[in-house]
Amino acid sequence: MESESTISRLESLYSAVVADVLDLMGFREQTLSPGIRPLTREVMVSGRVFTARAVEVSTIPKAPYQLEMGAIEQMKSGDVLVVDGGHHVGSAFWGELLSTACLAKGVRGVVMSACCRDLWRLEQLPFPVFGIGCRPTDSLGRIDVVEIGEPVVIDQVQIASGDWILGDRDGVVVIPDRAIDDALSAAEAKQSGENSVREDLAAGMPVSEAFKKHGIL
To answer: CATH classification of 2-177 is 3.50.30.40, yes or no?
Structure first.
């Protein structure tokens, strides 16, 4: 129930306002690079992080896809799979069948520094896929998962299973689990303040006056 409440609050926010409050809290390296973006029509993702790390390989592993399947089997409803794929562009790490399996478990999306394929099918699923691009080449013998559930670093952002993630058209922000309650409260307050600023600016108030009044820009 607590996770559901946290996800519901995340869904009401947007990545920029969360990134702003994390900055003020001293967490200044929490956003992924612009190359990681929505690849499907579902352009917002939020939930609890489950991590995986994949590396480039030059031969077909003895047990291909084993840990990738293991990650999906271990994830719970409300999770988002976050994959450190090393910005691999040589093949597609993710596809439609894996998304279908995740949907059946209540997994809320995937965010990866890797590519996907089957976009024509992914577009028909209510499942957000964030990545660095698309390529039809299969991952077999090209990229393989070597760790699941362990901390990863993507674009200098340290990410652990149990952290929280919010992604939209602006990009992706990661919220450390230890900071989630304070970050959500601060972001909700800032969002409310921005709504007031917007009303004043729309009414013709000068930007400098609005900033002096609200301290928000």
So the answer is: yes
Return the closest-CA partner of residue 38 out of 100, 138, 111: 111
Burial class (CB in 10 A: 0-12, 13-18, 19+), 113: buried
Of 137, 81, 142, nearest to 107 (Cα)?
A: 81
| Region(s) of the chain under CATH 3.50.30.40 | 2-177
Q: Express each pLDDT in 104-130 by its tens digit.
A: 999 999 999 999 999 999 999 999 999
For the chain, what is the mean pLDDT?
94
Q: Which pLDDT tens digit goes with each residue over 57-101?
A: 999 999 999 999 999 999 999 999 999 999 999 999 999 999 999
**Residue 44, CA distances (Å) to 110, 158, 165 in order:** 11, 21, 10
Rounded-to-integer distance, Cα 154 and Cα 33, Å: 9
- Contact between 129 and 120 (Cβ < 8 Å): no
